[in-house]
Automatic annotation (TrEMBL):
Keywords: DNA-binding, Transcription, Transcription regulation
InterPro entries: Homeodomain-like_sf (IPR009057), HTH-type_TetR-like_transc_reg (IPR050109), HTH_TetR (IPR001647), Tet_transcr_reg_TetR-rel_C_sf (IPR036271), TetR_SbtR-like_C (IPR049445)
Classification via Gene3D superfamilies: Tetracycline Repressor, domain 2 (1.10.357.10)
Annotated ranges, domain HTH tetR-type: 11-70
Protein name: AcrR family transcriptional regulator
SUPFAM superfamilies named in the record: Homeodomain-like (SSF46689), Tetracyclin repressor-like, C-terminal domain (SSF48498)
Pfam families: TetR_C_43 (PF21597), TetR_N (PF00440)
Record's keyword annotation contains Signal: no
DNA-binding region: 33-52
PROSITE patterns: HTH_TETR_2
An example Gene Ontology molecular-function term: transcription cis-regulatory region binding
Protein origin, superkingdom: Bacteria
């Protein structure tokens, strides 16, 4: 049965509210108001409250929405991405998203007293990451000795670090270059890649 126009419109409003709320909270932190979120999303304040009765509900929904999108993106990359680069692309994307959500995580912790941990959500992606890893190893992009639990540990650690500290794009790239060097090869080339990163960072 086709989705009703009213229901489809409500879903679009919810998605738009979440996207704009994430941007507003990232820009303004705790001073961000629900009214500003509504204005940026182009909806009435009542529409925001209908979907998210409290700011806590909105913050939690932002995190949940992010995790759902990351899961979908992992599956898409696993199915259609370039085997030689898909795993590395996903690493970069995950870390960038974690860094961008630092403000949301901080606000959620202040409101609920609970620190957002990425270990549980990241582990739900393990099946898709296993596919990315296997394809990368099959085409020679990743050392065949690398195991899934090692990749998941690295992914969890880098995402948690970016989330807690809001890593700059430069720090993200320098850190991931070192991580990728270890994943790609355990030969002299890996050491050369790490040395190059350290020279660039001074």
């Amino acid at each position: 049965m086709p989705e009703s126009p009213v229901r489809a419109d409500a879903k679009r409003n919810r998605s738009r509210i979440l996207a704009e709320a994430a941007a507003v909270f990232a820009e303004k932190g705790a001073s961000a108001s629900t009214e500003e979120v509504a204005a940026r999303a182009g909806v009435a304040i009542g529409t925001v409250f209908r979907h998210f009765p409290t700011k806590r509900d909105l913050l939690q929904a932002i995190v949940k929405d992010l995790l759902e999108r990351l899961t979908e993106e992992a599956a898409t990359l696993a199915a259609d991405g370039d085997p030689a680069t898909a795993l590395f692309d996903y690493f970069r994307h995950m870390v960038a998203q974690a860094a961008a959500k630092k403000t949301v995580a901080d606000l959620l912790a202040a409101d609920t007293g609970v620190q957002l941990e990425v270990s549980g959500p990241v582990l739900t992606l393990s099946a898709a990451v296993q596919t990315l890893l296997s394809r990368a190893q099959h085409c020679g992009a990743v050392d065949p000795a690398v195991r899934l639990d090692e990749v998941m540990a690295l992914l969890t650690a880098t995402c948690q670090g970016a989330l807690r500290s809001g890593w700059s794009p430069d720090l993200q790239e320098r850190t991931l270059t070192i991580v990728f060097a270890g994943l790609r090869d355990r030969s002299s080339q890996a050491g050369e890649d790490v040395a190059a990163v350290r020279r660039r960072s001074g």
